[in-house]
Amino acid sequence: MPVNVAIVGPAGAGKTTLFRALTAGRGADGVGMVDIPDERLDRLAEAVKPAKKTPAQVRVEDTPPGSRAQRVAFARQADVLLKVARCFGPDPEPAAELEEFALDLVLADLASVERRLDVVGKEARAGKKDAAAEAEVLTVAKQHLDAGQQLRTLALEPEQRATLLGIFPVTLKPAIYVANVAEELLPSGGEPATRVVKLADAEGAPSIALSARLEAELAELDPAEQAEMRAGYGIDESGLGRMARAVWAAGGLITYFTAGEPEVRAWPCERDAPAPIAASKIHTDFEKHFIRAEVTSVDELVAAGSMDALRAAGKLRVEGRDYRVQDGDVVFFRIGR
Ligand SMILES: Nc1nc2c(ncn2[C@@H]2O[C@H](COP(=O)(O)OP(=O)(O)OP(=O)(O)O)[C@@H](O)[C@H]2O)c(=O)[nH]1
Ligand SMILES: [Mg+2]
């Protein structure tokens, strides 16, 4: 299952425009797959010269028109939130608008916490095992939400966090802030963008400034024209690239690579996944039939030119089912039948 990224935020912030920029017009009905740029994949492809190069992707979805309640419900389905703030146009108030939007999410979580606390509180009083501990976490969460704060900013032990995830809180989802700035204020984004950065920093969330409208226009040009226009605005691709990588990191993902014929490919994988689970990203059967993983790094493969050359030189590491695939590994999975 691909990571689901929802573009959310205040009305008129430029969400649909950012969606168009990210999907380059290829996204139908507000849903599209977006490539994750990765220079390691480019270097691998240059060395191996495969017939095909396939980047990892995330699924991006634009907030459909609807009521505030519907917009909250939409955000709840996502793995990662891309929060857009309007920093262009007359009197931008990005921080105030983001806080107002966040309050809708906070209230939704408050309702879920209170519902659950009702049930668990009774269980705790009846002496049910584990209920008291859950009630305690929920009570702390409730106080935090009552103060208008998102759960993302609540310090939690891993097991407390796991408990809270049971109510699918939307304010605990990883978020990335996008300051959608006027073209004239590129590349920094000016004062309105700094307000978004400050708000993001306070939550420990990543933030970037870009112009969604300009990026949407750029997405329709060929690479040479894009480069020229970007240079004119003093920007490079790093905006979209950094946003993609932030989504990746926020989603708890690492990338491993395969480099055989016909393709060199980047695969998304949860951090710390054991080798058979990582293999199942390629084909679900691979988990059951996993024998071993042959592993190298991007740099070694680039130097050697092919997996076969490394194998012949005895330079592929052999790893078993307990191996945790690492970010940047190049892997060949031995599969039995
Ligand atoms: N100047 C400027 N205008 C922009 C930018 N991004 C979006 N706009 C304009 O702002 C208006 C709203 O943009 P949308 O992308 O529709 O905003 P939205 O967040 O999807 O709006 P809703 O879905 O209605 O909440 C449109 O007229 C856009 O052309 C930008 O980067 N710069
Ligand atoms: Mg829209």
Overview in brief:
By secondary structure, the chain is of the alpha/beta class. It is 45% helix and 21% strand.
Features:
alpha/beta; Rossmann fold; Ubiquitin-like (UB roll); 3 domains; three-stranded mixed sheet; binds guanosine-5'-triphosphate; binds magnesium ion
Question: What topology emerges from the helices and strands here?
Answer:
Blueprint lengths: L3 E5 L6 H9 L7 E5 L3 H10 L3 E3 L2 E6 L5 H9 L3 E8 L6 H32 L5 H16 L11 H8 L9 E7 L8 H14 L3 E4 L1 H7 L4 H11 L4 H13 L2 E7 L3 E8 L4 H5 L5 H4 L1 E8 H7 L2 H6 L4 E3 L9 E7 L2
Parallel strand pairs: 1-4, 1-5, 3-9, 5-6, 6-7
Antiparallel strand pairs: 2-4, 8-9, 10-11, 10-12
What molecules are bound to this protein? guanosine-5'-triphosphate, magnesium ion
Give the CATH topology of the largest domain.
Answer: Rossmann fold
The number of distinct β-strands equals 12
Any idea how many domains? Answer: 3
SSE sequence, one letter per element: EHEHEEHEHHHEHEHHHEEHHEHHEE
- Number of H/I helices: 14
* Range of strand content: 15-25%
Give the mean pLDDT: 92
Percent helix: 40-55%
**Largest sheet data:** 6 strands, mixed
